[in-house]
Amino acid sequence: MNLQTTVTDLFMVGPVFAKKLQKLDIQTVEDFLYHFPFRYQDFSLISQINRLQPGEIATIKGEIVSLKNEYTRFGKKIQKAKVLDPTGQIEIVWFNQPFLVKTLKIGESYNFSGKVDWFGRQKVLLSPEYEKEQNQKSIHTGRLVPIYPETRGLSSKWLRSLINSLIKQLTPQLEDFLPEEIRKKHDLLGFPQALGQIHFPQNLKQAEQARKRFAFEELFFLHLLVLKRQASWQKNKLAFPFLIDQEKVLEFNRSLPFELTGAQKKACREILTDLGKDKPMNRLLEGDVGSGKTVVAALAIFMAWLNNVQVALMAPTEILANQHYQTLKQLLEPFGLKIFLLTGAQKAGKEKSTKPDLIVGTHALIHKRARFQKLGLVIIDEQHRFGVEQRGQLVEKNLVAGKTPHILTMTATPIPRTIALTLYGDLALSVIDEMPPGRQKVKTWVVPPQKRDGAYDWIRKKVKGSDEQCFIICPLIEISETLQTVKAATAEFENLSQKIFPDLKLGLLHGRMKSSQKNEVMAKFKQGQLDILVATPVVEVGIDIPQATIMVIEGAERFGLSQLHQLRGRVGRGAKESFCLLFTEYTAGKPLERLKALARINVGLKLAELDLKLRGPGEIYGTAQHGFLELKVASFADLSLIEQTKKTAQAIFPNLDQYPLLQAKAELDTIKFVEPN
User: Fold this and answer.
1) What is the pLDDT of residues 565-601, one digit of tens each?
2) What pLDDT score does 626 carry?
3) Cβ pair 518, 319 in contact under 8 A
4) Domain with CATH 2.40.50.140 in the chain
5) Averaged over 460-476, what is the pLDDT?
6) 447 in helix, strand or coil?
7) Is the pLDDT of residue 625 over 80?
8) Distance from C-alpha of 539 to C-alpha of 507, rounded to nearest angstrom
9) Per-residue model confidence (pLDDT) at position 623
10) Per the count of CB atoms within 10 A, which of 109, 127, 391, 537 is most buried?
11) Which residue did the predictor score with more confidence, 520 or 476?
């Protein structure tokens, strides 16, 4: 057995458990060892039974003197055990675990760790963890006990046992891939010791030492991967250098019905400078929703056309691809460009018989045979929603005469400086940090439970009989068993249609609908045939409805501030005053403070930086369906560690081949993104 052994080859994991482990992203032994606890339960002090108080978490050590199953009035089984220590006796109660009567033995001593509470009028220990008292070290009781991210059918106790077994078996053969000089310089634990201390620390100081090691390792490898990507991009790659005709640039600008902002002009200059070089451009264009990224991209497309090369624009959703297609047709067809749309819902046909100048599409650009004869520019929108491999495929399959296309990626997701330093360290960055003149600020209100009915009445008055429309965004598609209080789009659509707004016309939009259904709903909403669109965050990017003036977000506390800001950006695109209503069940605490910050702040980058401070690692961009990098231990808010690990990676990268263990680890590692649903 080694780190790359798959879980299906472990004797204690069958196919059923292997499938459940996939939900936790555990497929190899290494994944198991890197499935770190998210907290520790302190069961380290042994309490005397006669001193136990209701409400406390305690560990006791005692002998079982009686054990039985009992039935409740409702036919449910409960298990009761009486446990004795030198100071007294207490009853232990479990629910619906009849196997315990056979597992536990009367007359034997065990450690029990759990909560002391009232059961009827009796003081009991409720549903505790248990472990037979033995000479060997305990892992479930009587210590700091690791609590892991779980999924249905996989408890922390099961994970704990298996991880403990794996660490014991593997420790003698584990080698440290971090060079000794790096460990000494930064005071880091060795790999085997760090594994033992993060999973089974004797105290919180040990756990913190281990986390320091793995946080350093995580960011260090992230920087190494970015350096690898950068070196791969620059190595012997040549692009089509564009001839930039300034007269044609002026002609394009004069064709626009508006004046470009200063930030747009600066971004245009940076992009055109890159396009004029024979090294392929690799630039990220960042700007808030509505800041005017598409028109900047249109100028780059226009230059590509003048230089007789083709352009591919890849968007993450069909809705967004169609939006770009319509906008770019308006901007570029008057010059004579032939623009095609290619999505998963369409059959590739027209582009086979005619040479397109621009193909706008989804991932179908990779999987379908888009006919590029001379691809010179690739534009990728909301690029974090595509894997690195997907982006690479589009470029690699369309190399012409050894020439690599220029790449421009765009995002409306504000990127804090620390993330720009890490995840996008290989990209040049252009930022559109000002909005076009006349764009109104969206008034944002936090709506607690007691004001919900009043908000519904206000929405009805605003949209009924007028040309104004409303979005209502729900975090989920279907009702979740584990998230009972979170609104789901399908159920909420029924509720709103039948009980709240029976006098209004409502539509439903979510990611599991067929393309034809989504397009039909969107067409109705655009044409004003619907008053309210109930949707999941599929509308976060790409939907431009100028007459939509109200954005309602259910369970707003479940979204990141950056994502809420993008959703808010879907309204306020017309001349009328617009509003964003943040519905929440919270009436106090940090979630409410975050929402109040959104009501105060309208600048995306400020919100992203604030969210980074408030939410911590792995949660920066909201729910997992909105693909961004997940960090297990490190935090993007830790600027000091980010800069430290970046310098270390830059120093060692030119001589990486001198460190075979480190090089092998870097070859195996990939940047793991949360893929969108």
Assistant:
1) 888 988 887 778 899 999 998 877 777 888 898 898 8
2) 37
3) yes
4) 45-142
5) 90
6) strand
7) no
8) 13
9) 34
10) 537
11) 520
Q: Give the span between the Cα atoms of 32 and 27, in whole angstroms.
A: 8
Distance between CA 142 and CA 119 in Å, rounded?
24
**CB-CB contact of 431 with 286 (8 Å):** yes
Average pLDDT, the chain: 84
Residue in 193, 202, 151 with CA at minimum distance from that of residue 175 = 193
Report DSSP letters for 475-539, one per residue: SBSS--SS-TTS-BHHHHHHHIIIII-TTS-EEEE-TTS-HHHHHHHHHHHHTT--SEEEE-GGG
Fold of 45-142: OB fold (Dihydrolipoamide Acetyltransferase, E2P) (2.40.50)
The distance between the two most distant Cα atoms of the chain, rounded to a whole number of Å, is 94
Q: What are phi and psi of 488, to 5 degrees?
A: -110, 140
Name the percent of the chain lying above pLDDT 70.
87
Q: Report, in angstroms and rounded to the nearest whole number, the Rg of the chain calculated over CA atoms.
A: 29
How many Å separate Cα 407 from the centre of its chain? 24
CA-based nearest residue to 47, from 137, 138, 136, 113 = 113
Domain with CATH 3.40.50.300 in the chain: 246-432, 443-601
How far apart, in whole angstroms, are the C-alpha atoms of residue 418 and residue 664?
Answer: 27
Highest mean pLDDT out of 152-156, 555-559, 611-615: 555-559
pLDDT in tens, 260-291: 999 999 999 999 999 999 999 989 998 887 78
pLDDT of residue 627: 40
d(C-alpha 654, C-alpha 651), whole Å: 7
Domain 246-432: give its CATH architecture.
Answer: 3-Layer(aba) Sandwich (3.40)
Q: How far apart are CA 675 and CA 673, in angstroms?
A: 6
**CATH assignment, 443-601:** 3.40.50.300
